[in-house]
Write a structure and sequence with these properties.
alpha+beta, homodimer, 9 helices, NADH Oxidase, 16% strand, globular, 202 residues
Chain lengths: 202, 202
């Protein structure tokens, strides 16, 4: 645990702080230990609870295991991300559903008019991408809660991935994430900004 | 704890699962118990660690306490969000710094050319907003880790807030969040989507 953390002010148990925040690291290599479908479902069963605007829950996930589908994904990855994506036990393509309003009769049943309001809202795709990004934050910490490590990658051809996997959907790719038990060779952690760099008080 | 959670598959302690994910709730009312500056700093000291693209860390926070500044904020809130924002112990305006590249000499010191690459990148503001949204996800769970409740609100005039508070900066507002110890009257939780609604396997 780093010296900047103040556990006395944080109710969360120090072990949990370390597991989710302070000791957890992005993984660039993975062991051969498999990731089970039950683990992927358990990650979702945590990540689904934190809030989204009007409970819209626009995050969507495509899990890809080794095989022909992953070979197709690799063609859209940036050069520096291809080798590690080729060796992770599971790869997740995280996306925003730009038609999340098709679900509002279930996610906000007390206001059925929301469906039509969102259908006509020119800001709907921006809202989908923002709230899906919030949910990716929750999901990445849920991956760590499951004892796994994540390797998020923005370096890929989003249009290519959307054409390859999402042509029959209203999903739009945001991030590709390798998942598994971390290998031994994490990079040194890069510096974090200071409190006074990012926070103002008024 | 809800019946859909599978603690045997989740390494995180069940108490921590409940505190951050399954039992935590969005707050619409707050007790009079104060939120200290030390708590706000401790929240940052957790939330700063999970990953951002190229370690860019674009999230910025303006904390507003009761007084004249909060009165100015209230004029930009949607009608349904004004009363609760007027009574929270602290309000956070969460923003993305569209000039996050001014910090890359400190956040990615081994690649100083990144500053100029980002300066010329037309996708920089989109990148700032996406990565700041990821960090808001981390930050909201860090608020819960500190034993506080958050009340996030997208219903406000973002341009008005930017003019009011961020004219001397490159910050752009994304979300306003009330913070404090939760009052007794949480709304019933709205339904979450099912695994098969949001996840595909390939």
């Amino acid at each position: 645990m780093t010296d900047t953390v103040t556990p006395d002010l944080i109710a969360l148990h120090p072990t949990a702080q370390a597991q989710l925040f302070t000791d957890a690291r992005t993984a660039n290599t993975f062991t051969d230990e498999p990731v089970t479908d039950a683990q992927l479902r358990a990650i979702f069963d945590l990540a689904k609870y934190p809030p989204t605007a009007a409970n819209t829950q626009p995050l969507r996930v495509l899990y890809i295991r080794p095989g022909e589908t992953r070979e197709r994904l690799l063609t859209h990855m940036a050069d520096g991300n291809r080798a590690k994506t080729a060796t992770a036990p599971v790869v997740a393509v995280l996306a925003a559903d730009t038609h999340f309003h098709e679900f509002t009769h279930r996610t906000f049943p007390i206001r059925p008019e929301m469906r039509d309001d969102f259908a006509a809202d020119p800001a709907r795709e921006t809202m989908a991408r923002f709230n899906a990004a919030l949910q990716i934050g929750y999901w990445l910490l849920a991956v760590r809660a499951a004892g796994l490590a994540a390797g998020p990658m923005a370096g890929f051809d989003t249009d290519g991935v959307d054409r390859e996997f999402f042509t029959d959907t209203t999903w739009r790719s945001l991030l590709v994430v390798n998942l598994g038990k971390p290998g031994p060779d994490a990079f040194p952690r890069l510096p974090r900004l200071d409190y006074d760099d990012v926070v103002r008080h008024a």
